[in-house]
Fold:
Amino acid sequence: MKKLMFNLILIGLCSLSQAQSTKFAKKTDLSKPFINRFKDYSAVMLVDLEGGRVLFEHNAYNRYEIASVTKMMSILLVVEEIKSGKLSLNDTLKTSTAASKIGGSQIYLREHEEMSVGDLLKSVIMKSANDATTVLAEKVGGEGKVPLFVNMMNSRAKQLGMENTIFYYPHGLPPSRKNRSKNMGANKSTCFDLVLLAEEMLKHPLILKYSSRWTDSVREGKDRFDLRNTSRLIKDYPYFDGLKTGFYDKAGFCIVATAKKDEDRLAAVVLGSRSMKGRDKFINDLVTWGFSELEAERTPEPVVDKVGTETLK
Structure:
């Protein structure tokens, strides 16, 4: 029996490996390797989405806790609901008691406070607001509220090929002692799975509309609440336009960053860093290198003719 179980596990791992290897090819003809002193991370991956190629990776297929990067899936489900016509940006939702008491990063929704779907979604994407996420999850989840929404998250993950991802909550907060006693652990994923999710999210301009903004606000007048993007990459470096950050102590500083330069589109993931500033600088270095590699690939190499004059191929 033990041998049979081992063989089944081995077959499953091989199938997963084959699925991963066929999705993105690995670019091996690099003009120069990526070398960086920053090693403060558990896993990293850089993918050329237009070419479907992995440019750089380390532990990219290993599963780690992802904190509020979780909200990428919550955002996708809400936006898909809007696109289907089942939900509108102008719809107004009422804040439940549970949502008003969720804690962590929030826009401090009051119990029974009403807010438009558009402002709630904006708050989730930019501010990573747990209360806004919960209100939207309760709406989209329907009769079962949040548990049904989480089921939808896991189902959508499987549809996208995110075979090594598990969701227990829509927001990404660490599990409470009570939830751990119910065998509800932390949300986990891999760099590879998160690139798949990012690729799907990029199909929706509405997401990029908010994820590329540095500042915005919700409410008006004396109740105005200013939003600042949780990713400083949006402000500090060119080309970045998304997508989601996450942090709590055990998960570390996590990020899924997307960037576009001319016709090139890159997605970079870092999980498990202990330094937010170091992580951001590393991501920028990695993406800058990635863009230079793609540009070098298109640049004709000089050749020398018989009289020693350089020409272009």
The first helix runs from residue 2 to 23. The chain is about 40% helix and 20% strand. Residues 1-18 have pLDDT under 50 and may be disordered. The chain has one domain: 26-297.
